[in-house]
Amino acid sequence: xxxxxxxxxxxxxxxxxxxxxxxxxxxxxxxxxxxxxxxxxxxxxxxxxxxxxxxxxxxxxxxxxxxxxxxxxxxxxxxxxxxxxxxxxxxxxxxxxxxxxxxxxxxxxxxxxxxxxxxxxxxxxxxxxxxxxxxxxxxxxxxxxx
Length: 146
Known about the structure:
Blueprint: E1 9-12, E2 17-19, E3 22-28, E4 31-40, E5 42-47, E6 57-64, E7 66-73, E8 76-84, E9 88-89, E10 92-95, E11 98-100, E12 105-106, E13 112-119, E14 130-134, E15 137-139, E16 141-145
Antiparallel strand pairs: 1-5, 2-7, 3-4, 4-15, 5-14, 6-13, 6-16, 7-8, 9-12, 10-11, 10-14
């Protein structure tokens, strides 16, 4: 899926800082995968299309506990040797600007983690809702199911 066609955007809470996209090859269960993604220190948002209104929406986020990559602080260019999150992360989730309860997400397994976030039917009010995920996380991929 194309980030541009889904109007994907992200906001970094650190001023004058740019985090470049990251790539990782790691385990997920018994298999090895390669993914490209982003370290999100702030928020990211995107539209989901062809959604049935008033029906629950299930989000699967492929994430991880650790990553490395490059960062630009103003005129300086540096490398992040290891960016690591806690075993559990707290994210805030919004659908069309309305906050949805989101449980703490367990990402303590080494390698990639796929976490499931449930959006109850009463929050799905349009066929192309805008989803905003707020909080520090690593974002490799999203899948949506109804």
